[in-house]
Amino acid sequence: MSIGYPWIRLRRLCQIMRQNFAKCCEEKLNAQINMELKACHQYLAMAYHFDRADVSSPGVHGFFLQASAEERQHAEKIMKYMNKRGGSIILSSVPEPLPKFTDALTALKHALNMELEVNQHLLEVHALASKQNDPNLCDFIEANFLQEQVDGQKILADFIRQLERAQTDLGDYLFDKYMISAGMHNSVAK
Ligand SMILES: [Fe+2]
Ligand SMILES: [Fe+2]
Fold first, then answer.
1. Residue 70 CA, ligand 2 centroid: distance in Å
2. Which ligand is nearest to the CA of 115?
3. 71 among the known binding-site residues?
4. Which residue segments constitute the domains of the chain, with CATH numbers given?
5. What is the mean pLDDT of the chain?
6. Which residue, 46, 68, 152, 166, has most beta carbons within 10 Å?
7. What is the rounded distance in angstroms from the CA atom of residue 35 to the CA atom of residue 164?
């Protein structure tokens, strides 16, 4: 018996359950998974930069650590969905993150740019799903991602503005204390 036999059978099972799921949507969703993992990796690098003894910003550390965990959850949510639609998950290598930031303001600006990039890609997934007449994929993106992205981007923009106004060492210190209980998604849509 060929070693490949069980895999071929499993692939056929996926093909049997697959319905109205275009190859281009599958590829775009794989790109989205990899973008979420890239963001997860970048936030993790940021979190542990701000945990260094010579930086010591526990609030910013916790905020980015939580953001990293959320990005991983996003990736896994799409992976789960991919399997429901009978697609194949293809993970690529994750790019090396930026390891250092001069201050919290620079890091937050980088985070906002990254979120805008992720959101742009989500909008492209949605547009492609509409073009391919795939209402299930449109609904999945709308229900799970679009509003959360916009909420998170607003929180980052608010933090950037508040930190710009507090640009002194004392302001930076107080801002970090303020961030200890903050999250990108836990204080939204109240
Ligand atoms: Fe995300
Ligand atoms: Fe995000």
1. 7
2. 2
3. yes
4. 20-179 (1.20.1260.10)
5. 91
6. 46
7. 28
| Distance from C-alpha of 190 to C-alpha of 155, rounded to nearest angstrom | 13
Ligand 2: centre distance to CA 31 (Å)? 15
- The pLDDT tens digits of the residues spanning 109-121 come to 999 999 999 999 9
Contact 87, 29 (CB under 8 A): yes
Please tell me the distance from the alpha carbon of residue 124 to that of residue 127, in angstroms, as a whole number. Answer: 5
Residue 36 CA to ligand 1 centre (angstroms): 5
Residues 6+ apart with CB under 8 A from 125: 25, 28, 29, 32, 137, 141
> Do residues 97 and 37 lie in contact, with contact meaning Cβ atoms separated by under 8 Å?
no
| CA–CA distance, 37 with 89 (Å, rounded to integer) | 13
Residue 21 CB partners (closer than 8 Å, separation 6+): 85, 86, 87, 134, 137
184: its two tokens: 């990108």
Q: Is 117 annotated as a binding residue?
A: no
Q: How many CB atoms lie within 10 A of CB 158?
A: 12
pLDDT at residue 126 is higher than 90: yes
